[in-house]
């Protein structure tokens, strides 16, 4: 997708063929800064401090983290240490473990001398596959938006989204935003309500920025505004991403998603979740019970960053010193509240039977 008219992916191999470049998402929307990762630790750190974030991009970064770990030697010990370090960076997005599993399955059986080149080939493949997958998600989601556009007789379709499940959260296209980019590209009138997404404000700082870069009409709203807008007929559909979808169709996504789904149900607004196959955890039978929820630092709730009048990026305190804060970073929306899952294989009901019918080749791990 584009930044000031120039096409970018969110992660790419540097010209030296070893180091890997990412966009520092902690600086957006105020500064567009590219960071070079040259070691395993750089990759793990980038995931932990959320220079890269979003489930598919976390997976892609982890894959390149394994590559960077193999620079000095490609022994089993090096591989084990890399997998262990990367696996403990963030707990909820299953794409991380998925990407590490893919790397492990291929590299473990290779002679040490072939592992370095094979790792880079595989990381590049994971990235390319992510782009293709998200483009297909966009095509299926576009068809849903088109139906609403016809019903609305050419009036803009108002789509509410939460957090950032755009191209910045993936290698390209995004999941929830991919249908919106496809619809906009096909001249369908769309307008996006972007939840600001406290506490880290990925909606206000990332979703709004990337939609703006593509000329997609959008409005930032507080996280609490969605229910009110739905009651007044101002939301035609909700599309969010997910960090881990359980076998039964329950979806974990950024904290606050569940409340949007409840409000959507109460107001008869369709609630869709867009995801690639790599976000399904076939081992999680029940999302509420089985999906680990990341608990992040209190300071993300008690403090906030923004650009000061002098142009500097500043962090300020919101709450009285001494007040404790809790910061669960994700919640789980039960399948019964999900109208449909938009995948690269089509739109499916959120249920174990429908997911297994869609992925008979993937649903091979026993819960
Ligand atoms: O904490 P984040 O910013 O990594 O959370 C991201 C989300 O919740 C996204 O909606 C999700 O990863 C889907 S990304 C296509």
Cross-sheet strand order for the largest sheet: 8-7-6-9-12-17-18
CATH class of the largest domain: Alpha Beta
List low-confidence stretches: none
Number of helices: 12
Structural class: alpha/beta
Order of helices and strands: EEEEEHHHHHEHEHEHEEEHEEHHEEEEEH
Query: Strand-residue fraction?
Result: 15-25%
Radius of gyration: 20 Å
Bound molecules: 5-S-methyl-1-O-phosphono-5-thio-D-ribulose
Number of strands: 18
Q: What shape does the CA trace take?
A: globular
Structural domain tally: 2
CATH architecture of the largest domain: 3-Layer(aba) Sandwich
Question: Main traits of this protein?
Answer:
367 residues, alpha/beta, Four Helix Bundle (Hemerythrin (Met), subunit A), Rossmann fold, seven-stranded mixed sheet, four-stranded mixed sheet, 12 helices, 39% helix, globular, binds 5-S-methyl-1-O-phosphono-5-thio-D-ribulose
Question: Could you explain how this protein is built, in words?
Answer:
With 367 residues, the chain is α/β, with parallel strands linked by helices. It has two domains: 2-129, Four Helix Bundle (Hemerythrin (Met), subunit A) (Up-down Bundle), CATH 1.20.120; 140-362, Rossmann fold, CATH 3.40.50. Helix content is 39%, strand content 19%. The protein has twelve helices and 18 strands. The strands form five sheets. A seven-stranded mixed beta sheet has the order 8-7-6-9-12-17-18, with helices on both faces. It has a four-stranded mixed beta sheet with strand order 13-10-11-16. A three-stranded antiparallel beta sheet has the order 3-4-5, covered by helices on one side. Helix 1 runs antiparallel to helix 2 (55-69). It is globular, with a radius of gyration of 20 Å. The chain starts with a strand and ends in a 9-residue tail after the last helix. The model has no long low-confidence stretch (mean pLDDT 97).
């Amino acid at each position: 997708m584009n930044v000031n008219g120039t096409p970018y992916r969110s992660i790419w191999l540097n010209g030296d063929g070893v180091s890997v470049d990412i966009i520092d998402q902690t600086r957006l929307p105020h500064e567009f800064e590219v960071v070079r990762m040259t070691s395993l630790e750089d990759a793990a750190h980038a995931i932990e401090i959320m220079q890269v974030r979003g489930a598919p991009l976390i997976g892609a970064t982890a894959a390149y983290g394994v590559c960077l770990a193999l620079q000095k030697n490609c022994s089993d010990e090096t591989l084990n240490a890399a997998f262990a370090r990367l696996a403990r960076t963030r707990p909820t997005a299953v794409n991380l473990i998925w990407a590490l599993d893919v790397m492990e399955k291929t590299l473990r059986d290779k002679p040490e001398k072939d592992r370095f080149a094979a790792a880079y080939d595989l990381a590049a493949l994971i990235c390319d596959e992510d782009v293709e997958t998200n483009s297909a998600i966009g095509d299926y989601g576009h068809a849903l938006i088109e139906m609403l556009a016809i019903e609305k007789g050419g009036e803009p379709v108002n789509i509410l989204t939460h957090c950032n499940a755009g191209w910045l959260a993936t290698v390209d296209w995004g999941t929830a935003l991919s249908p919106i980019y496809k619809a906009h590209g096909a001249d369908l009138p769309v307008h996006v309500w972007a939840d600001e997404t406290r506490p880290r404000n990925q909606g206000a700082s990332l979703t709004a920025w990337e939609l703006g870069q593509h000329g997609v009409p959008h409005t930032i709203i507080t996280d609490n505004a969605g229910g009110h807008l739905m009651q007044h007929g101002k939301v035609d559909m909700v599309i969010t991403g997910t960090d881990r979808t359980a076998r039964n169709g329950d979806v974990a996504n950024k904290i606050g998603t569940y409340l949007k789904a409840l409000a959507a149900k109460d107001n008869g607004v369709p609630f869709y979740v867009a995801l690639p196959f790599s976000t399904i955890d076939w081992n999680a039978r029940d999302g509420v019970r089985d999906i680990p929820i990341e608990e992040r630092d209190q300071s993300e709730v008690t403090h906030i960053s923004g650009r000061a009048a002098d142009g500097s990026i500043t962090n300020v305190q919101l709450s009285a010193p001494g007040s404790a804060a809790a910061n669960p970073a994700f919640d789980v929306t039960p399948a019964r509240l999900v109208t449909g899952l938009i995948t690269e294989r089509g739109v499916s009901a959120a249920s174990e039977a429908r997911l297994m019918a869609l992925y008979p080749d993937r649903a091979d791990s026993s819960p």
